[in-house]
Amino acid sequence: MKSFESSFKRLLIVSYRLPFTFQQTDEGVELVQNSGGLVSAVLSMAERMGQRQDDVTSKIHWVGHCDPAFQHMDSSAFENDTFIAHPVFMDKAVHKGFYEGFSNDLIWPLFHYFTSYASFNESDFDNYQQANTRFLEELTALIEPGDLVWIHDFQLMLLPDMVRQAIPDATIGYFFHIPFPNYEIIKLLPRTWRQVLIKGILGADVVGFHTTDYVQHFMQSVSEVLTLPIIGQRIVFPERSVVVRDFPISIDFNKFNRSAQEPAVVEARQQDQALLRGTKIIFSVDRLDYTKGITSRLQGYERFLIQHPEWHDKVTFVMTVVPSRDQIGQYQEIKREIEETVGRINGLFGSIGWRPIVYSYSSLAFTELMALYTACDVALITPIRDGMNLVCKEFVASRYDQRGVLILSELAGAAQELRDAVIINPTDTQEVADAIRQGLDMTPQEQERRMIHMRKHLQNHDIFRWSYNFLAAFDDMMGHQPDLETD
Ligand code: GDG
Q: Is the ipTM of this complex over 0.85?
């Protein structure tokens, strides 16, 4: 059996977003490469496959959606030293139905168990199919024998099978970044939709989820919807099998650990601590979304302030909400609710010299994010549902001082791994209030004990290990292909 290091010639990534953002400058359009987890993982994976970044002939190809406003640009404008982007342009109405409609108004709420927010619309499903077909067209023009195609996330569930039909011997990986819900939720989808979606994913050779729960849910849907045999971690078709496994995504541990000690971060941290007059700091940062549990978190903090007047004037909750989808009614509604609650709490408990909540609706520069990760005493991360949640992992990796307390929702995928966090249920206001008190009162020895365990885990399970494991799963798949019966 060939090892994965030599099995593939090139890595082709497909995700809704490209690894760049485009910025208009006086000289034209400039590509700014994103520095998120997926980009780091892809780079490490390409290196392992022998695709060296200093070799211009082996840049990494990335297929992703692009605004038609950039359609006039020459293809050379979509390249930097590392990536060649293959922009997928599509009709605006198709994009709206595919992205805002089917992806964000149906799959996102449904798969996060917010069933009443889900909107079922036949034309959105048509647009989802058309959009996945547009990705296929772009991708098939690119695929060569020996390529590994790695498709990402819920916007592209149909694509693996579309590729399989077009190029039967293609090697395809698929990773799902949000929760995969239990079958009772999948059953809410019209019968044909659920069949097409599950079959779509199974076009891949290796399918990855964050947790074993999501894997089990997916397997249950496969057996209910398509009645296919499942042997261990493999789903068996007559001519091939699909490996389905958990691959908990992670972060670049060393980057966060190192950045936390950089002079600019140290300076920003000291400034923040001085501005907050040495009060203890609770910190949270999330995109504006109903899944993030921001209002329940505020209710927990309010209960804590009611029950613990001794903490008044001694603690500040720095809460950053990053703007997202705020043209949409539901999102405007939660923003209004958050801002009303913040105003009420600050009005009830605050004084001339003390603001209980320092709230901002904006995104933080990386240095400021690092300053807050390392300045805070408690990170309060309370999603109602989250596939993984990288913020909590970044917080832990930043704490080279082995101080700080992580309060983490049991409904985040990360809670399966970070067992030394103070684990709470975000809808239990009293539990959140108690956890805040426990976190603020925790002895340095106890903080250190918990941090050491969590940091060790993340050091051993970083983003590079994630991509390594995903790639290695193809060995498993290849090794098993000829002798399906022997398992
Ligand atoms: C999906 C799943 C899963 C946030 N605010 C700022 C900022 N961030 C960065 C964080 C972190 C990332 O954004 C958010 O990561 P999450 O994991 O929380 O969520 P998503 O990426 O939105 O979504 C999720 C993930 O995919 C990976 O599979 O964990 O469950 O929903 O990296 O640092 N960065 C800066 N300023 C901010 O204000 N610089």
A: yes
